[in-house]
Amino acid sequence: MGKKENNCEVRSHNAVIVFAQQSASSDSPNPVTYFEDHTDNHYKALINVRISGITPGPIGSERVLQLVVQPRHGHREINIDIPIFPFSIGPEPVTIGQVVAQIEDAESVSIRWEVRVNGSLDPIGIISGTIDIQKDFCICCP
Asked: Domain range for residue 135?
């Protein structure tokens, strides 16, 4: 589970979060938070977001799909665009997106999903996928 270095231990925690999320509306907040860390341990996390399904909204709509990380200690949030790659399997179109990021001392991990039609938020879009988080931290490290 861990590796000892100078009487300290490096440990890993892993989480796999499966989600489905409706796009934002005036009544539905966005981004949606899927992971929060309430510890004081210093750590690094490898975050892998995979989008496996998407209902993108009407043709011509503006779409925003981002991994949103709020660092600890009052730093500004980090917004990372998740690219969307449309392709077809048989007669049905499929859209896949993925982003991987290494983050230090994240307080929360969220997904922002917005569809705008004529400048207004439209809650018609739905995404689904997984968020894999591997968090490495040290017990008693300086």
From this structure: 2-139
Domains of the chain: total: 1
Residue 72 is given by DSSP the state S
Q: What is the pLDDT along the chain (142 residues), one digit of tens a residue?
A: 555 556 788 889 999 999 999 988 878 878 999 999 998 888 899 999 999 888 767 777 888 899 999 998 777 999 999 998 766 566 665 668 899 999 999 999 999 999 888 888 888 888 999 999 999 988 776 6
Q: What is the CATH number of the domain that holds 132?
A: 2.60.120
Q: Give the number of other CB atoms < 10 A from CB of residue 76.
A: 7
Cβ(88)–Cβ(95) under 8 Å? no
- 128 - beta bridge partners? 20, 53
